[in-house]
Design a protein that fits this description.
This protein is mainly α. About 45% of the residues lie in helices and about 5% in strands. The chain has one domain. The chain is built from four helices and two strands; from the N terminus they run ααββαα. The longest helix has 23 residues, at about 1-25.
Length: about 140
């Protein structure tokens, strides 16, 4: 009787241990950390841009325009609580791309031509030059 009881206790302990292992087992996924994912649908940024460099620029745009990510990025169709950063569904994203090209052209074409630009610090044109924290620049 005692031997049968010991066997039952050992069996129960082993079963409980295996159940705990199964419950606590975290499957290995091939999910790449967000910062290491390959960026998709880059049309103005260089194709080899890192997540961190693009994220840094996007953070500055948010400040310069006083907006959040959803201003330019569409909702994910799979999960409405997330943004589909690669989607071109929101037309404001194309406006942003045009503005990026415009400021780059102004900096290359005009700001570098300022006399003595090579010897003094010349302020670059940025989104904040016109927007000043507003989604639409204040025009007077």
């Amino acid at each position: 009787m005692i031997q049968k009881r010991k066997t039952m206790v050992v069996f129960t302990c082993i079963t409980a241990f295996i159940a705990l292992l199964v419950i606590s087992f975290k499957p290995i996924t091939s999910e790449v950390p967000f910062q290491q994912r390959k960026l998709k649908n880059l049309k103005v940024f260089p194709a080899n841009s890192s997540y961190d460099s693009v994220d840094h620029v996007m953070d500055q745009y948010k400040v310069d325009l006083g907006v959040k990510c959803g201003y330019c990025h569409a909702q994910s169709k799979d999960n409405p609580r997330q943004r589909d950063m690669a989607s071109d569904e929101n037309p404001k994203k194309d406006i942003c791309r045009d503005m990026m090209r415009m400021t780059e052209e102004m900096n290359k074409k005009y700001m570098q031509r300022i006399p003595h630009a090579d010897t003094v610090t010349v302020q670059r044109v940025t989104c904040n030059t016109c927007h000043r924290g507003q989604a639409k620049p204040l025009v007077k």
